[in-house]
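Thread amino acids onto this structure.
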């Protein structure tokens, strides 16, 4: 089984959540580290463990980013990382994967399923071999204690359904 290191310079976790029930606010975490064990010929024995640096959140608005780092949302001081650990990896046909695992946010863990497509491996012009993984899942932020909100006519300022998109580049380590 080949070991791949997530390249934090070329990987991102993005999210989208409804704001005031009418538009999506998007943001990203741009500091991801972790290890992937993956061989396209042996998918069932694959695994992934990844850590996202909560302080790396970026939405393009400093005031909003600071609020998202606060105890109202992610509480980055108390919970500096979001962690994902796979429990099972399945083939979904072609280059598709279904990665089932435990997602921990704010110290609360729930199972999630990621729909993933992998690309590569490719030989890098910089003397290495790399793989790409693009995945999506949806979570309810309330399940993880990310519950700040303000009521407004007809609903709330922040939606509960969060779409997560991962774009990962990983480099062969052995």
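Threaded sequence (174 positions):
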């Amino acid at each position: 089984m080949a070991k791949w290191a997530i390249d934090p310079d070329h990987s991102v976790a993005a999210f989208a959540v409804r704001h005031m029930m009418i538009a999506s606010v998007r943001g990203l975490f741009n500091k991801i580290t972790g290890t992937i064990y993956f061989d396209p010929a042996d998918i069932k024995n694959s695994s992934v463990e990844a850590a996202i640096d909560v302080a790396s959140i970026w939405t393009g608005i400093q005031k909003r980013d600071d609020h998202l780092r606060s105890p109202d949302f992610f509480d980055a001081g108390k919970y500096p990382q979001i962690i994902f650990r796979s429990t099972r990896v399945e083939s979904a046909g072609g280059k598709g994967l279904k990665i089932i695992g435990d997602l921990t946010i704010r110290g609360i863990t729930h199972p999630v399923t990621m729909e993933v497509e992998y690309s590569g491996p490719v030989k890098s012009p910089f003397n290495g071999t790399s793989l790409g993984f693009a995945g999506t899942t949806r979570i309810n932020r309330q399940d993880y204690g990310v519950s700040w909100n303000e009521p407004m006519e007809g609903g709330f300022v922040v939606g509960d359904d969060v779409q997560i998109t991962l774009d990962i580049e990983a480099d062969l380590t052995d």
